TrEMBL record:
Claim: Transferase is one of the keywords in the record: no
InterPro entries: Flavin_Rdtase-like_dom, P-CP_red_C, Split_barrel_FMN-bd
Signal sequence annotation: none
Limits of the Flavin reductase like domain: 15-162
Keyword terms, alphabetized: Flavoprotein, FMN
Chain segments annotated as transmembrane: none
Keyword Flavoprotein: yes
Cofactor list: FMN
SUPFAM superfamilies, A to Z: FMN-binding split barrel
Family indicated by similarity: Belongs to the flavoredoxin family.
Name listed for the protein in its UniProt record: Flavin reductase like domain-containing protein
GO molecular function: FMN binding; oxidoreductase activity, acting on the CH-NH group of donors, NAD or NADP as acceptor
Pfam families reported for this sequence: Flavin_Reduct
Amino acid sequence: MKKEIKIKPFWYSDLWVFPKLITVITTLDKHGKVNAAPYSHIMQWDVMQKNPRIMLGMRQGSHTLTNIQETGEFVINCPPMDYLDDMMETARFYPAGTNELDNTRFTQIPSRKVKPPSLQECPQIMECTVEEINLLEKSSGIVIANIEAIVMDEELTTMDRAERLTTMNLPVGLGDHQRKFYYHTSTSDYTMHELKDAPDSIQAADVRTNLDWDEGAMKALMGIPAPVRKLVIKEAEDYSEEQGSQIVTLDLFIAMGEEFGIDDELLDRFRV
Ligand SMILES: Cc1cc2nc3c(=O)[nH]c(=O)nc-3n(C[C@H](O)[C@H](O)[C@H](O)COP(=O)(O)O)c2cc1C
């Protein structure tokens, strides 16, 4: 039998289980002093390359949000499992102006595009600048920020996902009991499942289009994974018609990709 439960403050980690990314966010206060604290209320906002952005939620009045409001910059550091104690140390309520990192094993290193430091021991790091802050009434502050740099340990960049997951060994937050006891698992504990093609997905021999496609555009379409071809046909045909063309040409196809912010590396695959 199912039971409806009361929606309380912090509903997301009351009875409801909401596994999340564990991060330590580093900021500078207006005097240039470092602050660090864990944050998990974090989600992608704009996923395209043109204007990549991330969204974070934080308690109003927290040192992190105050620093972000005052300086417009922060760094998201993802610590590995072995550094959970250090991450928890940065969660303690220290007075403003205290550098929580002094009580941890984390090593501060310069960031590339922003002033707050990055943490050496974190295998993946994101440097951000603020675009917009939305202060919800009697609730959190929501920060939408531009992603200025994504920095990873170099050896991770050539690994396949399975090896990268175990090598990084990132903690996954499983919520807390009474804001005191925090539960975690890790990315080493994973399974993999293959996504099967949609029942109506397009096979090479079975491409149905409404407009004519030139040879280059059709070849480019075939370079796209079958499950998303139907979607791409619609996008490309809508785009071509908007541009006043009843034919989808390779040039239009590439121009559409550029407008979506798809990068050169991906587009190169279509330039025949
Ligand atoms: C694993 C973990 C995740 C947390 N995530 C958030 C979060 O997403 N938003 C938030 O407001 N507080 C979060 N907290 C609580 C803050 O880290 C805590 O209030 C901290 O003292 C804030 O420090 P600051 O004032 O230096 O920013 C989290 C704590 C832990 C341990």
